[in-house]
Design goal:
Layout lengths: L1 E9 L8 E8 L2 E6 L10 E4 L4 E4 L1 E3 L7 H4 L4 H4 L3 E6 L11 E3 L2 E3 L2 H11 L4 E7 H9 L8 H16 L4 E5 L10 H8 L8 E5 L7 H13 L4 E4 L13 H13 L3 E6 L4 E5 L14 H7 L1 H10 L11 E2 L4 E2 H8 L3 H11 L4 E5 L3 H9 L3 E3 L18 H16 L2 H8 L1 H6 L16 E4 L20 E6 L2 E5 L17
Parallel strand pairs: 1-4, 1-5, 6-7, 7-10, 10-11, 11-12, 12-13, 13-14, 14-19
Antiparallel strand pairs: 1-2, 2-3, 5-20, 8-9, 15-18, 16-17, 16-18, 20-21, 21-22
Helix pairs in contact: 4-5, 6-7, 9-10, 9-12, 10-12, 11-12, 14-15
Length: 497
């Protein structure tokens, strides 16, 4: 089976600017790249890419699709952004590294999870990280104590098994349960499993604001105890009182890079973050795993939390409760109550409800997106184009079109594409992807560079991104704008050895 893509501007993922060339695909690989017209007369399917850019399939290095792709196997929210490979298992949460079940499927180990992904033929490729939170929860439950020697050895073995099965590395989420209970020594002991390898450590750091520099230092120490390779998840400085720290933060990163530590990062192109509403709680309540039950059972505790929320680390007034698409300030007015009491009642319902936080700077965002070592990463969880009941951050449907739109203006078209393709493939050591090169797997996206963008918001309007023409996975069309209801399922589990 042969396919020729002709008359398009090839942006090969290296950072070079687009160049007019034709591509010959044989079976699932790029067979040749040549000047326009070279393959005229070839017995092949022809795709005319006139006026379009042809890029390697986009790689989302910060995905959370581990179980979502078992529930919603079309992955439209991902595929329609031009993404052909997801790196799952971020922020310490990973389905693949421990026994699990979802939608009637079950797996006992990482190999069985990989086989399941291949058997289901989801539309996009899957790379995994082993999640520290998931491993700790499996071994210790919600226990806040340090692990015993035996528990630590069990956690190390689970990590070893996952890495041996092809996980690209491991991740931590140190603001989430139970990861926030882990001290640096526990993390370093786990990291030691990767010593002498190229397996990456990706971390949602313990702080991205008030204790940012201490959190960075901890992340560096953990990486140095292992492979000496660090990925900072969704690099940012949160809260206005910390925006100025961007200068020193970037200086520190450059110093560590110059010293020989390999540091890279990822970022989504939005200034709203999104996570559980429980993140509004100040210390010491932020480490309570049963906050909702305690609120339901004690009027005195409800009053205590209402008062404590006056010292929330988040800006309650601008916080959006995603299920309502309203800020807490708007909900408070609607209910005739204070913002703190409104928030307390939401926490009482469930501290796991999704919220969005206006906590980042537009100027800092642009500076971070321009950094040569920053990849695109959606941090997307919801599947809004697959699941009509899904509520979530617009980054789940618009991160990559919006990232391209911003970075192509800040830097260049070639650099924007590199950050979405070649750079993530190199950082996460994803074989035969990320570049348009002879003999590489033909994962490609064809798009209109003038139109590629996303206007999605929290109101669930404009969910479809603009500008994507065709997505090709392993040499076959997985999605085509001209036949938008058809989805091709050609993705595979990619082991990173």
């Amino acid at each position: 089976m042969k396919t020729v893509i002709q008359n398009g501007m090839i942006c090969d993922g290296s950072g070079h600017e687009p160049e007019l060339k034709d591509i010959l695909i044989e079976n699932n690989r790029i067979a040749e790249l040549a000047s326009p017209g070279t393959f005229a007369g070839a017995e092949a399917d022809i795709i005319d890419a006139s006026g379009k850019i042809i890029a390697p399939g986009f790689i989302d290095v910060h995905a959370h699709g581990d179980k979502r792709k078992l529930r919603f196997r079309d992955r439209k929210s991902v595929l329609l952004q031009g993404i052909t490979t997801e790196v799952d298992g971020n922020c310490g949460n990973s389905a693949s590294c421990i026994p699990g079940e979802c939608e009637g499927f079950s797996w006992k180990n990482p190999e069985e999870y990989a086989n399941l992904i291949n058997d289901l033929n989801v539309p996009v490729n899957t790379v995994v990280l082993a999640g520290h939170n998931s491993i700790r929860q499996h071994v210790m439950g919600s226990c806040p104590a340090r692990p015993t020697d035996e528990e630590l050895r069990t956690m190390q073995k689970l990590l070893e098994d996952s890495l041996s099965a092809g996980a690209a590395g491991w991740s931590s989420g140190l603001t989430y349960f139970p990861g926030k209970f882990a001290d640096e020594e526990e993390l370093k002991a786990l990291s030691s499993v990767t010593a002498g390898s190229q397996k990456i450590y990706a971390t949602h750091m313990r702080s991205e604001g008030d204790d940012l520099f201490a959190a960075l230092e901890e992340a560096v120490h953990v990486a140095q105890a292992g492979s000496n390779r660090l990925q900072i998840s969704h690099l940012k400085t949160i809260f206005p009182r910390n925006y100025h720290k961007i200068d020193h933060l970037l200086e520190l990163i450059e110093q560590y890079r110059a010293s020989g530590l390999e540091i890279n990062a990822d970022r989504y192109p939005y200034v709203y973050s999104s996570t559980r509403i429980g993140q509004v709680l100040p210390a010491p309540y932020d480490k309570m795993t049963d906050i909702s039950e305690q609120l339901k059972n004690s009027e005195m505790f409800r009053k205590e939390i209402t008062e404590a929320l006056k010292n929330s680390p988040r800006d309650l007034a601008t916080t959006i409760l995603i299920s309502e698409n309203m800020t807490l300030a708007e909900l408070a007015v609607q209910n005739g109550k204070s913002i703190e009491e409104t928030c307390m009642e939401i926490l009482m319902q469930s501290a796991e409800q999704s919220a969005a936080y206006l906590c980042m700077s537009e100027d800092n965002l642009k500076r971070i997106l321009a950094l040569s070592y920053v990849c695109a990463g959606s941090d997307g969880i919801s599947c809004q184009l697959d699941d009509p009941e899904s509520e979530g951050h617009p980054r789940a449907v618009g991160s990559f079109p919006r990232f391209y739109h911003l970075v192509s203006q800040i830097c260049s078209v070639g650099e924007a594409v590199r950050k979405m393709t070649g750079l993530p493939a190199t950082v996460f050591r994803i074989p035969e992807r990320g570049f348009i090169r002879k003999n590489y797997i033909a994962d490609l996206v064809i798009f209109d560079g003038e139109k590629l963008d996303s206007k999605a918001g929290f109101d669930r309007n404009n969910l479809l991104p603009c500008g994507i023409d065709r997505v090709i996975v392993a040499g076959k069309t997985a999605w085509n704008a001209a036949e938008s209801e058809k989805i091709g399922h050609y993705g595979r589990y990619i082991a990173v050895n």
